[in-house]
Amino acid sequence: MTDKIRYLAEQAKESVPKGILSVEQWIDQYNILLGNLIVQECIDCCGSQADKKNIRKRFDLPIESDVLYPAPEKDGSINSQYERKYNLPKVMK
Description:
The chain has helices spanning 3-15, 23-44, 49-58.
């Protein structure tokens, strides 16, 4: 298991109420929380709005049609290439 999955598993474990649920209910709640955390982690690494929506749809998570998911920060690659000036060769006179 990767460190990231261990971290998400620990987050899910800490989020399930203690001393209130039966063992079966606790396990069900834990599985739901861990699944949601893993799916959200996958969504967070996607750049495409459509991909984010499709991942949510695939796992039957709610999708709002007008939601704009936050995009990753611009990093000087293809994400921001359209804002740069053209790199045209100099014309010789």
